[in-house]
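Hey team,

Filing this mostly as a record. A colleague (T.K.) asked me to run one chain through the structure pipeline before their review meeting, and I want the input and output archived in the tracker in case anyone asks later how it was produced. No errors, nothing strange. Just documentation.

Input sequence:
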Amino acid sequence: MKNYFYQLVLSFVFLFLVLMPFSRAHAGQVNVIQVKGVINPVSAKFIVESIDKAEEAKAECLVIELDTPGGLMTSMRQIIERFLSSKVPIVVYVYPQGARAASAGVFITYAANIAAMAPSTNIGAAHPVTIGGGGPGSAPDTSGRSTMMEKITNDAVAYIKTLADKRHRNVKWAEEAVRKSVSITEKEALKINVINYIAPSLDSLLAMIDGEKVNLNGKTVILNTKNASIVYEKMNWRYRILDKLSDPNIAYIFLLLGMYGLIFELSNPGAILPGVVGVIFLILAFFAMQTLPINYAGLALMIFGVVLFILEIKITSYGLLTIGGIVSMTLGSLMLFQSPYPFLKVSLGVIIPGVLVTALFFVFAVGLGLKAQTRRSITGKEGLIGEIGEAITPINNRSGRIKVHGEIWMAVSHQPIKKGSEVVVEKVNHLKLHVKKQE
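Output structure:
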């Protein structure tokens, strides 16, 4: 009997040890990423790679903690296309409190398998923003931009209605969010079936969605997230740098620094370092411009302003060219990134100092460099021409000596010059100076 009891205990221990790894594996893992800021090619690439990693890890789901004012439609579509082909459920969680899912964020939230929001958050204002500007309230014009914007808006409406149908969310509100830029709170969003849950924290969200059935391309998956381990995926340093470069203010500053470097190099050939640094800054600026709604008319005005500053250095205009350069630079800076949304524009707090510093740079720094090139040489043999010296011996057309710059030189003159007379150097011929008497 005693042996039977021991055997029974050992059997339970054995079963516990064998089944424990399976219970842990069954709990699985949940991958979590944070996306904060403008939706651009960098954030799109980060999200796509995070989905790839979640698939490789066979995660229960990928949770995207979202806080965005919106972004570029091209990047948004890239993200959504990857959502729709994902082999793991996608959960978009508008978080933390005070966060928002605006513009492109609405589309991304609608495309998720599960949509959730934290308390005190909002969603909406999904009117499309495209390269070249346009937005809610854009005035019609004869250039056809209004017609083009209407086409883009209709396309965006059709797109979000498709997502709403696929994820069984409110179609009517989705259309209003695009056409009228309406926004709602998390409570309103839950009430009208825009989102699935309101959760104050990630842990509470995972507890809420535990057991949720998700359709992944025709296959039903049951989430087991209550006791899942959480794995945070973060942007690496390369993505963080590229994301910062996509800020319009930083792109603008880099553009100015690149111009400074190149112009300084051109005005002082051989300096090398300013030219190299300028090219690097310009490359970084042009990279950033690929992710922003750039207006090439604004860029042309900025370049024209630089040309006017350079002309001011070479031409006496009594400040008129400088004023023109400041006006051109200011207008170009304001027009450089054309968008109705502040997050896709350069701040006035950056533009005004940038224009003033540029004007000072060209008037003083580059001006000194150009004047130095035209200044008469004061070193070597060429530096002796025009200098005044003293005849220390009588000078004729065959011989003589003078003292100039504290040095004794052989000298000749077409007219006789007495010892002690002041002379002016006219020409340098090897080690002999041609001089004349100082009048």
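Quick notes for T.K.: The chain has three domains: 28-239, 247-374, 382-437. The first strand starts at residue 29 and ends at 36.
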